[in-house]
C-alpha cells in the first residue's frame, strides 16, 4: 500500500481508503455484518488506514468502531459525517447555516457517533452537505474549534454537494477547512478545473468518493441491470440510464483498448493520477472487493496518453436527481 499526505494535516493516509456506506445496510442492499467485518479486517491487513463512514449510514459507524477497536494496535484513521439538521441533501441555496448546522446539533451528532462507535475521537469530522454561502456565517466554526480543543475531533472537513465542486472554493480559500470530500471520476472531471488545484495550493486534503460512479464504471451496469426495491441504485440507474452508462463505458473501453473487466481498475487509477488527491474511498462490502481494489496501490499511474483519451469522456449529468 502506498500513502499520501492528507493536506497540511501531517497525517498520512492510504491512497486506497475504505468507503463504509455500503456496509451499513442503509441505501445499499446485500451487505452482511459478518462479511463486512471480515472485509474491514482484510483491508487493514493490506495497509488501508483510512475509513470513511457517517452518522447517516445505518449501522456503519457501529461496525467500523467495532473493527477499529479490535485492531487497537494498528493506526486506523476514521472519518465520519454530521448530517444537516434539516435533513436536506444537497444543501439548497438560501438556507441559513443555523438551519443545517447549528452548534448544538453538531455537538450532539459527534457525541452520538462517538458513543455508537465506541471510539474516543474521530480523525476527521465532515459536514455531510455544504454551501459556500455559509462561510463567515453562523456558529458552526466555533463549535468545530471547541470540539477540536476537547480532543473529540482532529480535523474538520466537508462533503461537497453532488456534482458541485465549485461550491467549496470559498471555504477552501478561507483556510478553516482541513479536508474536502468530492465526487471525482472519469465522467465527472469538473473538480480538476478549479477545486483540486486550489486544494493543492492551500494544503487541503482531498477525499474522492464515487470514483466508480456508484457502479457505473465497473462495466457491470448494462441495459438489463435491475436492483432490489429499497436499494438506492434502483433510483440512480432508473429508466434508460443503464443503457446510457453501458454505451459510455463501451466507448471508454474501446478508446483505451482494454478489456471490459479492466474498466474499474482504470477508473481508480484515473483518480489516483491527480497529485491533489489524498485518498479514494471506493465502497467495499466484501473481502474480494478489498483485495481487488487495494492491489491497485502499486505506483502505476495512467500514462499521459491514457489521460488524454479519458479527458474526452467527460459526461456532465446528475443521476441523483
Task: Compile the SSE list and pairings.
Blueprint: E1 3-5, E2 12-14, E3 18-19, H1 33-45, E4 50-52, H2 60-70, E5 77-82, H3 97-100, H4 103-117, E6 122-127, H5 140-149, E7 153-159, H6 169-174, E8 179-183, H7 195-202, E9 205-209, H8 233-236, H9 241-256, H10 263-272, E10 279-280, H11 287-294, H12 304-311
Parallel strand pairs: 3-4, 4-5, 5-6, 6-7, 7-8, 8-9, 9-10
Antiparallel strand pairs: 1-2
Based on CA atoms alone, the radius of gyration comes out at 19 Å
**Biggest sheet architecture:** 8 strands, parallel
Number of strands: 10
Q: Globular, elongated, flat, extended or rod-shaped: what is the shape?
A: globular
**Contiguous uncertain segments of 5+ residues:** none
| Helix content, binned percent | 25-40%
Count helical runs.
12
Broad structural category: alpha/beta
Structure in words:
The chain is an alpha/beta fold and 321 residues long. It has 12 helices and 10 strands. Helix 1 packs across helix 2, helix 1 packs parallel to helix 11 and helix 4 runs parallel beside helix 5. The two termini are 36 Å apart.
Amino acid at each position: 500500500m502506498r500513502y499520501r499526505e492528507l493536506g497540511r494535516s501531517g497525517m498520512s493516509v492510504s491512497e486506497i481508503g475504505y468507503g463504509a456506506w455500503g456496509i451499513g445496510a442503509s441505501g445499499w442492499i446485500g451487505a452482511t455484518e459478518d462479511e463486512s467485518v471480515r472485509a474491514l479486517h482484510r483491508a487493514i491487513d493490506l495497509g488501508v488506514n483510512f475509513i470513511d463512514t457517517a452518522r447517516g449510514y445505518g449501522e456503519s459507524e457501529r461496525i467500523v468502531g467495532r473493527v477499529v477497536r479490535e485492531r487497537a494496535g494498528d493506526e486506523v484513521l476514521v472519518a465520519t459525517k454530521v448530517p444537516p439538521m434539516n435533513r436536506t441533501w444537497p444543501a439548497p441555496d438560501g438556507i441559513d447555516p443555523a438551519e443545517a448546522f447549528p452548534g448544538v446539533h453538531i455537538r450532539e451528532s459527534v457525541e452520538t457517533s462517538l458513543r455508537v462507535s465506541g471510539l474516543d475521537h474521530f480523525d476527521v469530522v465532515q459536514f455531510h452537505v455544504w454551501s459556500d454561502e455559509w462561510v463567515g456565517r453562523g456558529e458552526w466554526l466555533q463549535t468545530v474549534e471547541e470540539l477540536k480543543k476537547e480532543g473529540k475531533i482532529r480535523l474538520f472537513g466537508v462533503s461537497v454537494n453532488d456534482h458541485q465542486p465549485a461550491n467549496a472554493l470559498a471555504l477552501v480559500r478561507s483556510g478553516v477547512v482541513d479536508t474536502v470530500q468530492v465526487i471525482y471520476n472519469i465522467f465527472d472531471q469538473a473538480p480538476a478545473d478549479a477545486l483540486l488545484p486550489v486544494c493543492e495550493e492551500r494544503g487541503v486534503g482531498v477525499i474522492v468518493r464515487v470514483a466508480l460512479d456508484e457502479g457505473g464504471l465497473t462495466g457491470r451496469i448494462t441495459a438489463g441491470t435491475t436492483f432490489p426495491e429499497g436499494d438506492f441504485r434502483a433510483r440512480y440507474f432508473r429508466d434508460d440510464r443503464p443503457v446510457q452508462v453501458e454505451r459510455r463505458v463501451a466507448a471508454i473501453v474501446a478508446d483505451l483498448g482494454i478489456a471490459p473487466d479492466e474498466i474499474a481498475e482504470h477508473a481508480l487509477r484515473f483518480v489516483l493520477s491527480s497529485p491533489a488527491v489524498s485518498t479514494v474511498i471506493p465502497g467495499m462490502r466484501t473481502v474480494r472487493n478489498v483485495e481487488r481494489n487495494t492491489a491497485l496501490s502499486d505506483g502505476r499511474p495512467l500514462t499521459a496518453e491514457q489521460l488524454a483519451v479519458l479527458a474526452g469522456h467527460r459526461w456532465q449529468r446528475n443521476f441523483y436527481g
